[in-house]
Amino acid sequence: MIRFSLLAGLFALIVPPLALAGEYDLTVDRVKIDTGEFVKEGIGYNGASPGPVLRFREGEEVTINVTNNLDEMTSIHWHGLILPFTQDGVPGISFPGIPAGKTFTYRFPVVQSGTYWFHSHSGFQEPDGAFGAIVIEPEAREPFRYDREYVVQLTDKHPHSGDRIMRNLKTSADYYNRQQQTVGEFFSDISEQGFMTTLRDRLAWGDMRMMKADVEDVQGFVGMINGKGPEQNWTGLFEPGERVRLRFINSSAMTYFDVRIPGLDMTVVQADGNNVQPVTVEEFRIGVAETYDVIVRPRDAQAYTIFAESMGRSGYARATLAPESGMQAPVPALREPARLTMADMGGSHVMSHGDGANMADIDHSGMEGMDHGNMAAMGHGEMNHGEMNHGDMAMMNGNARDPFYAPGSGLTPTAASGGKFLSYADLRAQQPLYEDREPTREVELRLTGNMERYSWSINGVKYEDADPIRLRYGERVRFKFVNETMMTHPMHLHGMWSILDVGADQWNPVKHTINVQPGTTVYMETEVDAAGQWAFHCHLSYHAAAGMFRKVIVEGGPESMSSALDSVNATAGGDL
Amino acid sequence: MKRLVLVTLLASSVLSPVVSAQQLMEDTTERKQALRVWGAQFEELEYRYSDDDEELGVWKADLFYGTDEFKARWLSNGEYAIDEQAYHTLENQLIGQVPVSEFFDARAGIRFDTPEGPDRTYAVVGLSGLAPQWFEIDASLYASQDGDVSAEFDAEYELLITNHWILVASVDASIAFSEDREIGVGKGLVSTETGLKLSYDLIDRSFSPYIGVVHERKYGDTADLARDQSSGIEDWFAVVGARLSF
Q1: Of A79, A246, A441, B15, which is most buried, counting CB atoms within 10 Å of its CB?
Q2: Is the pLDDT of residue A353 over 60?
Q3: Contact of B115 with B87, CB cutoff 8 Å
Q4: What is the pLDDT along chain B (246 residues), one digit of tens a residue?
Q5: H-type alpha helices, A453-536
Q6: In what order do the strands lie in the sheet containing A291-296?
């Protein structure tokens, strides 16, 4: 017996590199989600939300059996994974979906490494809790060292179901907004800025029928980390002096988080699963659906708080790193709610009602700095004081301006510590994934919407009325995002990488989700190397559902692809 | 002819892999359909006590279903006099609503008035939406089955004392372009109702109790008709009620 297991062990040692294949089982279940503040019926995997951390190896051929125990259709999308489109898990685009009571088997080779996640792409199952993490071990050695690692998966759990939230937003767009400007704020602004300035400001916004407080559409959530609310305090243990890799994943439906660990610097080593040249920061903002891997090195035998404040400061998630469980560190207070400024309205056509002189400034400067050549200049922190709104001065102190925000934007982040806050402009690929080449064409996508009606669209057209975006296999397409709304949109293209233009040419970082801030223009390039059809959308759940969504069809491609497509059409999507 | 068929067959058999490669599935999921939503609310559901010791139960309700492009709406409002056990007003409108600008919708439909006394049926056209500086506006034009034309204008402003304490100021004016003596309406400005209510959002925005004052007044010929009936032309009410939404 012993000899047999020894043999088997030896065999296992030799064999895996030859035939790396793993089989995984996931069940989709109704679960209870306890935030510490309320308990809520939701959807999870293998009986819990978040679901399990799936650990794959690069080069592995995975088989994943997904059994739907719900009484409705479901699906799983492997967010950020490069795979045949039939395995991408978007109902109506990749496959018909997984009917109630059925098992669907996903099969695909794992061709990458890093931190990713998976989630349902059906209805509002993802905001209702249907997500989990993916960690892929690389084939080669990583260009950084760490002693232990944790997944830190963030979400914004709301007491209302996704359907209810969508209905409330459609009925009244400010339903969940409890940070609106009040009479009290009017008077405190008067005492700070004077009566006329305050009145003029209110009239200008009132004229546009837009709210400065319109930063977070859905407030009233509890920020959670790895399924634990702030009071439940998820804790990761460490030995003092160890390097700890934290794999941050933002699985929120709607919420951007500003993440910091008071007392620790964080060295960002990966963004969206791809290695970046290490950059040490004290705080970073993680957009919905993004991932950042950071390495921290706590040297003291004390507890540290992982504090993730929502961008609009309406809520937070909190966890602890400690040498022993049960230890805790102080939890910082939330900072003041962010207020949009006229700069954030820079791209908004509604601005034409506003005051013209001011606007002219904004329109130019909103674009500049995004341009290739101008990147070098951005460190100078040049800003046009004329267009800055009084109260936002505090926001800007110290930090050079972030070129991925409109100059004077009320959303421009600053580190609570006064130190370095990560910008997209800091991200450089560790290794270029593709040969750098000129794009073959540019596709402009204006991000559009009507806040009051809570309708969201691309180029003014909602998904229900839109034709697919058609790309040719082998192209390198330059996407130009022009954000004409006053909200931030995390744009996610399935199946192909999004090479974010930070002006670093072949060192531009490779991502799967790109934040486009209000009043800005952002470029990304995509090597069109995956045939089939793919989803492309804003990853804010209720924006995608309201129409900010497209189908992308990649035409042409290698022969093998065409035959793969044939078999898909024959079986209509895997073994059901 | 036969040869042509043969050629076509051959061609199609050769080309079929390429053709089917183009036949990617159509998105027929719900996502590709227009989003349908419904909503139901009582903007007012209140008890009024007048300076003449009159007691009223008053509601203003709204039920809708539809898409961004078209909504069907049922609007209902009424005043029930508790002592008399009679409806002073009882209006129900069935309307369709389409967007006409970024902030405004056009409405058209039918209004049925079935209070104590004579009934009326009107055709309705109107505009509703959000005007600059956050004024919520409803403007309607009515034509009765007898050809009497009237108009109604509603404006409402919400002042946020805090994010939960809200002071709502509203004014509602109706104008008649011809007399309808039977229902006590004279030509010209008919009446106004002005209100000031302080509400508190107790459960989300679905239950918001309020207290307030309402002033009702009749004008011109309408006031004269009221005097002839020896009923009042001006009332002050103390109100207590709640805004409900489902």
Answers
A1: A79
A2: no
A3: yes
A4: 444 444 444 444 444 333 334 458 999 999 999 999 999 999 999 999 999 999 999 999 999 999 999 999 999 999 999 999 999 999 999 999 999 999 999 999 999 999 999 999 999 999 999 999 999 999 999 999 999 999 999 999 999 999 999 999 999 999 999 999 999 999 999 999 999 999 999 999 999 999 999 999 999 999 999 999 888 899 999 999 999 999
A5: none
A6: A222-225, A148-157, A244-250, A291-296, A266-271, A274-281
Taking residues A427-456, what's their average pLDDT?
96
Are A234 and A260 spatial neighbours (Cβ–Cβ below 8 Å)? Answer: no
Which H or E run contains A235? strand A234-237
Q: What is the ipTM of this complex?
A: 0.89
Distance CA A448, CA A457 (A): 5
Q: Tell me: the pLDDT tens digits for A109-136?
A: 999 999 999 999 999 999 999 999 999 9
Q: Where are the domains of chain B?
A: 40-245
CA distance A495 to A552: 10
B130 in reach of chain A (CB within 8 A): yes
Q: What does the pLDDT read at residue B232?
A: 87
Exposed e or buried b per residue across B95-133, where buried means at least 16 C-beta atoms within 10 angstroms of its C-beta = bebebeeebebbbebebebebeeeebebebebebbeeee
Could you tell me if B19 lies within 8 Å of chain A, comparing CB atoms? no
Chain B residues near residue A555 by CB distance under 8 angstroms? 22
Q: Where are the domains of chain A?
A: 18-141, 180-214+339-410, 441-571
What is the identity of the amino acid at A526? T
Of the partner residues B23, B41, B205, the one whose CB lies closest to the CB of residue A569: B23
Interface contact A206-B130, CB threshold 8 A = no
- Name the one residue in this structure whose structure tokens are 């946020």: B160
Q: Would the pLDDT of A57 be above 80?
A: yes
Give the pair of three-digit tokens for residue A218.
């859905």
Contact call for residues A252 and A288 (beta carbons, < 8 A): yes
Contacts of A209 in chain B (CB under 8 A): 103, 130, 132, 134
Q: Write down how long chain B is.
A: 246
Closest CA to B92 of B50, B48, B59: B59
The CATH number of B40-245, from 2.40.160.40, 3.40.190.10, 3.40.50.300, 3.30.56.10, is 2.40.160.40
The answer to whether B37 contacts chain A (CB < 8 Å) is yes
What is the per-residue pLDDT for A401? Answer: 81
Distance of alpha carbon A110 from alpha carbon B6, whole angstroms: 46
- pLDDT tens for each residue of A382-391: 333 333 333 3
Which class in CATH covers the domain with range A18-141? mainly beta
Instruction: Supply φ then ψ for residue A159, to 5 degrees.
Output: -65, -20
Angle (CA) B185 B187 B188, round 5°:
115
Report pTM: 0.88
- Residue that is written with structure tokens 């500086």 in the block: B133
Name the CATH superfamily housing domain A441-571.
Cupredoxins -  blue copper proteins (2.60.40.420)
Q: Are A337 and A314 in contact (CB under 8 A)?
A: yes
Query: Do residues A43 and A28 make contact, with C-beta atoms less than 8 angstroms apart?
Result: yes
**pLDDT reading at A10 higher than 90:** no
CA distance B165 to chain A (A): 10
Read off the tokens for A150: 């944790």
Confidence class of residue A396 from pLDDT cuts 50, 70 and 90? very low
Better-scored residue on pLDDT, B5 or A499: A499
